[in-house]
Amino acid sequence: MLRALAALLVLLALPASARAPKLTLFISVDALGSDLLLRNRPRLTGGLGQLLNTGAYYPYARYAYAEARTAPGHATLATGANPWRHGIVDNDIYDRATGQSVQPYMDPTHQLLGGVTVPTSDTSPENLMAETLADRLHVSTQGRGKVVALSFKARSAIPLAGRRGQAWWFDEATGKMVTSTWYTKAVPAWMQAFNARKLADASFGKTWELLRPRAEYVGEDDHTAEPPDPYRMGRTFPHAMNGGLEEPGPASYRVFGVSPYSHELLVQAAKAALEGEGLGKDNVPDMLAVSFSGTDAAFHTFGPYSWEMQDTLLRLDQALGELITAAERAAGGRANLVIALSADHGGADIPEAWAQAGMPAVRLNPVEMAKGLAQELRAKFGIDVAVKLMELDVYLGGKALESGQVDGVAVRRAAAAWLSKQPFAVMAVAKDDLDSAPDSGGLVAPLRRGYYPMRSGDVLFVSKPFQVVSDYPRGTNHGTPYSYDVQVPVVFAGRGVKPGLYLQEIDPVDVAPTLSALLEMGMPASAEGKPRAEALTGR
Predict the structure, then answer these.
(1) Residues 6+ positions from 248 with CB-CB distance below 8 Å
(2) Engineered SS bond to 225: which of 122, 288, 352, 379, CB 3.0-4.6 Å?
(3) Phi, psi angles (nearest 5°) of residue 141
(4) pLDDT, tens digit, for every residue of 366-415?
(5) CB-based contacts of 265: which residues, under 8 Å, 6+ apart?
């Protein structure tokens, strides 16, 4: 009797059900650095604010690789791995065979559906070298679980959809959501109906107005460091939305992508996907991934402290409330829903604004930097070396180097030595020395994690803090290992999550493994992260 009673008590102590949530809502906010979110948090009372208040909130997640960019950030969130495993090192890479800059998801064998394919543009996940959360969900459910990913950027939607989901992104040439032949041979009826609504066209002739009274915005609307007339929308509120056109077209669609109207389009597309694909309607887990890109467009153009950035966050806060409500309805309530939110990177202030505030900030022109390095290599080796700088990557080429006329290792090391001595640089290292270079400053390890052979540069360097590499004379950028670029929030909410504020620093590679645990399935094959056990209830 005692043994039987003990066995019964053990059974009663076990979870009543290991059923996974019906729907996972995976939200990425492009360029939402931790500092940006923390500064604006008191004004967030909608969906974003509620997630922070009711979820497991980690303000201090830090990417462990050096080059904080959109494509590698989304690939890392999707795979739980760093670029040295998933192979996506930047938004653009240098194709040594053609001498062109190409996008990391370029695939000439797959074309856009419903749009015009640019030969070097992103169209498929073929170049993603690691399994994604979406792929693992498909395998674990034996093909029954559905995944839809939506974004304004292909390089965001593609990794979130993986190889077996659906990826949809906004085409600035047509003003429609498009996909490629990798994912489907025909646009489904629900997306056809959504595109027929022409939401981007509907904004033509409108203005981007402030959501709140002007007194609630911090700083100045018209900052001297902002561009003179970005996208022909004006420097100050209200912003024109027509791009200087008489009727909707590519220029007005680009303005649309900068504005918070882009958030509304993605929410409406998400609602269409929930209904059209029946996401969350049965006990087989599905996933809806939405990456909001308008925040990044506003950041690059106006900077993280601008009124435009403040207003786009306030409007995103509203949009997320509508999105979460739709997801809860589709899943039959919050008890059947898991939500994750994070960001692909943060970002620097406009360097001229930093300089005005007394920071040692400089705008670095990669074209001029490349010219200086090419002159140094010609003087040292007596040959012409083609030099291409792309963020932290330095690509070297030319006939003399490629034919073996000179020692490639010697040239790469000389380039690294010259870069290391420049006033804008902290250090530089040739790819040949990545595994052996001393790491007294802790910067070689992030460069290693971001390096993938044949895609990364021949030489990698790190600029000093507040040095912004950009070939544009205005606006700002991101892509360094400093906190303002690599520190992002992570939030989990819904079924199986223990709410709270978690101040320990984590790595975004933990996002996919944590969602795997909540979905009661294995992790993506190449994942380096781990489930955040402290935020999981086990129920």
Answers:
(1) 175, 200, 201, 204
(2) 352
(3) -95, 10
(4) 999 999 999 999 999 999 999 999 999 999 999 999 899 999 999 999 99
(5) 170, 199, 200, 256
User: If we measure between CA atoms, which residue out of 250, 260, 57, 30 comes closest to residue 151?
Assistant: 30
Sheet holding 459-463, edge to edge: 386-390, 393-397, 459-463, 425-430
Are 145 and 285 in contact by the 8 Å Cβ rule? The answer is yes
pTM of the complete model beyond 0.70: yes
Give the whole-angstrom CA distance, residue 116 versus residue 156.
Answer: 19
- pLDDT per position as a tens digit, 37-94: 999 999 999 999 999 999 999 999 999 999 999 999 999 999 999 999 999 999 999 9
Report the relative pairing of strands 337-342 and 487-494 from DSSP bridges.
antiparallel
Nearest residue to 280 via CA among 319, 338, 320: 338
**Residue 210 in tokens:** 């402030």
Cα–Cα distance, 130 to 428 (Å, whole number) = 28
User: Which among 351, 475, 358 has a CA at the least distance from the CA of 424?
Assistant: 351
For residue 205, is it left (φ>0), alpha (ψ between -120 and 50) or beta? left
What confidence tier does 98 reach under pLDDT thresholds 50, 70, 90? confident
Phi, psi of 492 (to 5 degrees): -120, 145
Contact (Cβ atoms closer than 8 angstroms) between residue 347 and residue 31: yes
Three-state DSSP class for 56?
Answer: strand
pLDDT score at 8: 39
Q: How far apart are CA 527 and CA 131, in angstroms?
A: 8
Cis ω before 366 (30° cut-off from 0) = no
